[in-house]
Amino acid sequence: MFLKQFFEEKSSTYTYLLASTQSKEAIIIDPVLSEIENYLDIINEQGFNLLYILETHIHADHVTAASELREKTKAKSIVHKNAHISCADILITDGCVIRFGEYKIEARYTPGHTDACTIYYIEEEGIIFTGDTLLINGCGRTDFQHGSAVQLYQSIHNKIFTLPENTVVYPAHDYRGEKSSTVKKEKQENVRLGEGKTQEEFVKLMQNLNLPYPKQIDIALPLNQTCGQKKDA
């Protein structure tokens, strides 16, 4: 499998391009609009056929490249049905399977950071793309977009921490320069969710984070509700 991790500095966002080296069919996860030329350069250089644009949720910290990628590659955009947007091509639910080449990626619904959060698991490769649901030594905030600390705790414990411990975790963000983790490491060492942390402790911690208002939310969220397409476009 071809797997390329991109990093957008302003929002510390990771985007992932995955492809079959045999069929050249590809998918991209959480693309950022400002980085679209970087994605297209690799797609064209490798001769990939981009089939799907997967969103882990409706982002509040950057504008998605979904609309422009659809226009330039004819790929179809995918998001969970609870995103309540009409611009996506495919609305998925828990357990849906997306195929590209010889690979299948399983969508796992993980509400908590938002009510549309979905992670993507490729069992045969032992990798999972966790969006903002589970970060390296952290997790997404739960104080806006219908977030719920109780739901987030349960989502992580039921949909991620039940996976084989050597499963590689690829998050949507990192603010310390780390690129990946493992289920085992997060189960043991995650400062918010690691070994021994109860749901009650987690909820109390999340309620007292006192995080600042997201810098780009007033721009990013409305645009992402139209898959990144400006209304006058």
From TrEMBL:
* BP GO annotations: glutathione metabolic process; hydrogen sulfide metabolic process
- SUPFAM superfamilies referenced in this protein's UniProt entry, alphabetically: Metallo-hydrolase/oxidoreductase
Q: Which UniProt keywords apply?
A: Acetylation, Dioxygenase, Iron, Metal-binding, Oxidoreductase, Transit peptide
Q: Boundaries of each Metallo-beta-lactamase domain copy?
A: 12-173
Q: Which InterPro entries match?
A: Metallo-B-lactamas, Mito_Persulfide_Diox, POD-like_MBL-fold, RibonucZ/Hydroxyglut_hydro
Which GO molecular function terms does the record list?
metal ion binding; sulfur dioxygenase activity
Q: Which cofactor does it need?
A: Fe(2+)
Keyword Iron on entry: yes
One Pfam family it belongs to: Lactamase_B
Q: Which family does it belong to?
A: Belongs to the metallo-beta-lactamase superfamily. Glyoxalase II family.
Query: How is this protein named in the record?
Result: Metallo-beta-lactamase domain-containing protein
Which lineage do the record's taxonomy fields give for this organism? Bacteria, Pseudomonadati, Pseudomonadota, Gammaproteobacteria, Moraxellales
